[in-house]
Amino acid sequence: MKKTVLRFGLFGAITICVLFVLALSLGSGLDYSAQEIIGYSSMIISLSFVFFGIKHFRDKENNGVVTFKQALKIGLLISLLTALAFGVLDTLYTQLVNPDFATEYYTDYIKKLEETVPAEELEAAVATAEIQKELFSNPVMSFLLMAVTVFVIGFIISLLSSLVLQRKQP
């Protein structure tokens, strides 16, 4: 099981890193909404290795059998490796490569708030955005937010994959 987790976790980690770099280079002119869609799509594509890792373990290493519990454990560990890789990569990007990212993102966000939020609610919405900006400017919080986001999506994929792929001994 350990080899499967490491192998497919590494595949997921490499994939999410490659897709992150591709999105940065090819999607630099896109607005933040489009970049967010690309980001979530990259997470889902990278976490598809959860399904393939569980299937590989069941079919190649465990004689066609995997319990729900084993499958979920494998999926969660693969998700964890992918999530940690993305958390580190995103933190490196926001702290070293583009330290102005939080300011740029929140400036754009506030501009959208001004266009969509009623005037009487705008001040409170901007204050909330400023608190979030400060929070996410912290590298530890940035890491945690990104890693947890990927892990939660990975948990859902692990759960679904475990339900689909579980197979008991005949």
From TrEMBL:
It comes from the Bacteria. Keywords: Membrane, Transmembrane, Transmembrane helix. The keyword Transmembrane applies. The chain crosses the membrane at residues 37-54, 74-93, 143-165. The keyword Membrane applies. InterPro entries: DUF4199 (IPR025250). This is DUF4199 family protein. It comes from Spongiivirga citrea.
